[in-house]
Amino acid sequence: MAMFKTGLEVNQTMKELSGYSNPTQDTGDGRIEKFAYKAISGLQGNDSGDIATIKAATGVTDVRPVYDVENSDGHIYMWCEIENGQRVIYWTANTNKVKLNPDSRWFFCNLQSVRYIEDLDKFDSSEAVNLISFFYGCKRLISTQDHPLQLSGFKTPKATKFNVMFCNCSNIEYLDISNMVIHYDASEDGDFYNRSGNMNSMFNGCTNLENLIINDSFTAEARDINRMFYNCQNLKGFQNIVNKIKTDNAVNMSYMFYSIKEEVDELDVSGFNTSNVKAMDGLFYRCSGIKSFKGLDHFDTTNLGVDMGGSDGTGWMFSDCTGLTELDLSSFDTHNVHWMKGMFSGCTNLVTIYASENFVTPDPIYGAGYDYVFNNCTNLVGGAGTAYNGNQGREYARIDDPDNGRPGYFTAKS
Fold this sequence. Notes:
This protein is mainly beta and 414 residues long. The protein has three helices and 15 strands. Strands 3-4-5-2-7 form a five-stranded mixed sheet, sandwiched between helices. The N and C termini lie far apart (65 Å).
């Protein structure tokens, strides 16, 4: 079976073929309208002969081989045609299917004008390890239920990196990636961006994504799910997504669901195992449609803030969750958390926060660690009647006990 070159090499080839102004850069205004397969008969697996055959069949003058010479039994070629004034990248091969390279990062990255990426069902993804930025920045790319990206057959038995894979694909409405799963390989652990088990910002900026189909093992081995659904404000089936997300190995969940707007009477998060999580900053920030939670009172937070240098923890975790009237944080242990900035800020309808004596406020490592914790929580009342008085800082993040000179905004759970 033929195998593509690395994703970056293919990406640069497509941009060169289309007349892209600077194919070595990953920013700019892309010119490609469509990417698709075209069958060409008579290919023999000989570059000079096959290129001549393709030129004769299509009338183009520039055809490029894009197969990995060392790992291919077949040949893959690309060229650009102009159709109705639009540039179309076509590819063909002398094999029925083609394999993605283990290093397939940036394959379609920043093809900012592309609207249609077709025939992905001809891709075999079984060898792909690195899929970072695979579709990143394809801001006009169309994927609807009637015209979906053909990813339902994508199987990823070796993939360890999905970070920013669909980031800023703001036109996508529907994705079926039900055969994709992330894997963790400790031998691959590198810097923040290249660490194994990374799903950071995978769908970040997919503002029109409504329907996402994933499987129950999708995140089972993930370590970093930070900003995974950041600003997916039109995502439907919030509860169904939460039910499928496994967090047993997750270390970073910061801003994961930022700004999902779907109305949910009760979001059940009782399936989340958070025993390894070190950062939950902004986890539900601006999720204004959530009316209540089930299962927060079972969160294990003993590792929150550990090894995070004082800049991560629970900051902005529930900020602007204007639908909430009650929070049960009675299981929260914050002895290692030095950053709670804006944790409840903007929760204008929040009345009651249940907590225990384990919800403490260690000295901040950075000066702003407790700014705006209760900003504009105008309806908040502590368990002994202490009403919100404009105080926003850490001194009121405790169980209300005014008789002993310790007024607070928290209520002890009986």
